[in-house]
Amino acid sequence: MHHILEEIPLFDGIKPNVLKTIFKYISIEKYKRNQVIICEGCTNEHFYIIKKGEVKVYRTNKFGQDIILALLQEGDFFGELSILDEDTASANVSTMQPTELLCIHDRQFIKMMETIPSIANHLFYYMTQRIRYCDESIENLNRPNSYDRVGSVLISLAEKTGYRKNCSVIINKIPFQHNIASLAGTSRETVSRAFTQFEESAYITKTGRHLVINDYPRFYEEFTQ
Known about the structure:
The chain is α+β, with helices and mostly antiparallel strands. It has 2 domains: 3-139, Jelly Rolls, CATH 2.60.120.10; 143-223, Winged helix-like DNA-binding domain superfamily/Winged helix DNA-binding domain (Arc Repressor Mutant, subunit A, Orthogonal Bundle), CATH 1.10.10. Helix content is 43%, strand content 25%. The chain contains 9 helices and 12 strands. The protein has helices at 3-6, 16-23, 80-84, 106-115, 117-141, 146-161, 177-184, 188-200, 216-223; strands at 26-31, 36-38, 46-52, 55-60, 66-72, 77-78, 92-95, 99-105, 163-165, 168-171, 204-207, 210-213. The model has no long low-confidence stretch (mean pLDDT 91).
């Protein structure tokens, strides 16, 4: 079962015997769709790695609207901040589909960080990437044109979850429009109109949740200015 860990970027380069030891402290938990895993302001005692499924990290504003901070998929992790700073959770985390998580108790997580420096280095690397993503998201929200913001969100998703094929980038499972709207700071209707305009301009081809950015260099240049 420890071979599961070999497929997770956080454990890249870790020797099999070390992974076997780590796996002894891991439990596997299954969650249904729309099930809350972590609540903002509550104590969190686990570090989570997504084995299968998707989750969203979000905060709820005074109007009861969910403001999505991140969408996480297989191989991504969460829960580390409240363990490292010994504080309550700074955001909510809930599933977007049936999800399986690898769970490590906070004490074992800290011990793992202290005894296996390469894991700590990987963790801090991915945390810095998230900070960069947050900086880009804040900058994107300041753009006045909502279509530009939607385009920028698509670029972020392409960089994180897409794969290249010639000049195109393919995203096999694009988030639902209301989630993209939250990331772009706009409405679901605006996202729908933006997608229609992008398709009419031959920027994208979309079938269900399968989306292709047809000429990625052109799209990137247009929506990162």
